[in-house]
Amino acid sequence: MPKIILVFLMITMSLMAFAQTQPQYSQYMMNSYLINPAVGGIEDYTDIKTGYRNQWTDFEGAPTTYYLSAHMPIGKTDRTSTGARPNFSKSIRRPMPLSNQFNTSAKVPIHHGIGFILVSDKTGANTQNSFNISYSLHVPITTKMKLAIGLSGGISQYTVDFSKVQVKDNPDQAIVAGSRLTALQPNLNAGAWLYSKQFFVGISANQFIFNSFNYKNTDNPNQRWSGDAIPHYFLTAGFRQELSEDWTLIPSTLIKRVAQAPISFDVNLKTVFRERFWFGTSYRHKDAFVGLVGANISSLINLGYSYDYTLSGLKERSRGSHEIVIGIMLNNRQRVLCPQNLW
User: Where does the UniProt annotation place the signal sequence (predicted)?
Assistant: First the structure.
């Protein structure tokens, strides 16, 4: 790809900072809390996850994303595990089937969830840091199914540092050496999540209000530029099919609508072996094929990795995208090895 085109793309990504979009994730199925606040508190334990994504490797100025999330239940007395766990001392054995782990005759109580997400995303000259806290309410529909609704809100800091963009001729007064723009903007997200041990359906809307804001030039406070936080809408669904005592198949999909952009979708297929190891693949429409692999190392730690093979025009320059997620299950009193609601 000619160097002039790379420079043009760098400038384009920096100018896109005025229209703020959210980071892209390939392992959202491992941490659906990233896109839907209703998921908070869905498990029996405090679910902590940290992730790093390096998108379009070797492409200068391409997005890099870090996040830390944590959520926990409050008043959840209907345990999703009997506490039975496999003995791995000699051979790997699968825990008892999910269908035998629940007392379906007992009354299922309402419970609550709280949590937070901290995200740092950098693309070219643009940096976006955000912090959100969430609340969710999980209401039983039947003895086997619940509906969760959730809200999250917080603040985002947007920074555009044009000293990192080099251009020979530029008519825009914003793009001058040393110019740095900053903005603070509140945000609000909402979602719903219908789930059981066999399926889930979720819908959410992120940064759907407080869309318009103003950048300030740190060198010249009288200069201002308008920015927009672009609304994102997600519809996701999946189900869990036990093929045998060892193998479980989990197909899922995500439909995403970003304002001012075409509707996009992902199709995912994940296979779990003996509740400990998993691997799968995803197809992101006109964008990438994704390979996924992970392990539930213990009742405390799980790990996931994904690699995106780029299908778009950037494949001539990019060496794909890498994403790693580390999960910690604190206060996991039932010693659950595999998450029971987030697959």
Answer: 1-19
Written as six digits, the tokens of 323 are: 């994403």
* 6 CB-contact burial (10 Å; exposed 0-12 / middle 13-18 / buried 19+): middle
CB atoms within 10 A of CB 17: 24
Pairing relation of β-strands 224-229 and 19-20?
Answer: parallel
- Is 302 exposed, middle or buried, given 0-12, 13-18 or 19+ CB atoms closer than 10 A? buried
Residue 310: burial class (beta carbons within 10 Å; 0-12, 13-18, 19+)? buried
**Dihedral Cα 94, 99, 102, 106, nearest 10 deg:** -170
In angstroms, the CA 256 to CA 38 distance is 17
3-state secondary structure 38-61: HHCCCCCCEEEEEEEEECCCCCCC
